[in-house]
Amino acid sequence: MSILIAVTALLAVLCVFNIFLTVGVIRRLRDKTAAAERARPEPPKVMMPNGSPVGTFTASTVDEEQVGTAVFAGGPTLVGVFAHGCTSCDERLPEFVTTAQNFPGGRDRVLALVIGSAEDVVDKRAALAPVAKVVLEERPGGPFATAFQVKGYPAFALVDAEGLVKSSGTLVEHAMSPAIRV
Predict the structure, then answer these.
(1) Is the peptide bond before 143 cis (omega within 30 degrees of 0)?
(2) Where in this chain does the entry annotate a coiled-coil region (predicted)?
C-alpha cells in the first residue's frame, strides 16, 4: 500500500511540474508574439503621411474628364499610382483592380495615376479604365504625383471626403487596413 501512495505522490508531483512547464512555455510564446507584433515594420513612405491634406491639383483623365481636389468631396476615394517599367506595379495591379471593383461608389470613387508614355502603358490603362478614373502623366513629378508627394511606386492611398490621406503604402492592404472600413 505504501508503494501505491508513493507512486501516486510521484505522479502528482510530475503533473504539477508539467503544469509549471506548460505555463512557462505559453508565457514565452506570448512574449515572443507580442515582440514580433511590435517589431513589424511600417509600410514604406511612398507618398504623403497619413493625416496630411492632399495638395491642390487639376488633371485630365484619359477620358478627357477634368479631376482635381474637389473629387474627394463625394466620400472616401481609393487612389493608386503605377509606373511604366515597375515590376511591383505589374504584380499589384490585379489586386488594385479587384479592390476597385468592390469599392463603394464604384469608378467615381477610384483614381489611378499611370506614369509613362501613352504607348508604354496601354495594358495598365486597359486594366484600370473600367474600374477607375485614369490620369496619365508622361513623367514623374506631374501635378497629380506632386499633390500626393509620390516618392515610389506603386503607391496606394485612401483619401477621406475632406481630402486627408487616411492611410497609404505600397500595398493595397496598407491603404485599406487602418482606414475607413469599406
Answers:
(1) no
(2) none
C-alpha–C-alpha distance, residues 59 and 120, integer Å:
20
Cell of 27: 508565457
Partners of 111 in beta bridges: 79, 133
Which CATH topology does 52-176 take? Glutaredoxin (3.40.30)
110: part of which helix (H) or strand (E)? strand 110-115
Q: Report d(CA 172, CA 141) in Å as an integer.
A: 22
Helix extents (H) in 1-156: 2-39, 87-101, 122-128, 143-147
Whether the Cβ atoms of residue 55 and residue 176 lie closer than 8 Å to each other: no
DSSP state of 53: B
- Beta bridge partners of residue 165, listed in sequence order: 159
**Domain regions of the chain by residue span:** 1-39, 52-176
Query: Structure pTM?
Result: 0.74
b/e map 109-122, b = 16+ CB within 10 Å: bbbbbbbbeeeebe
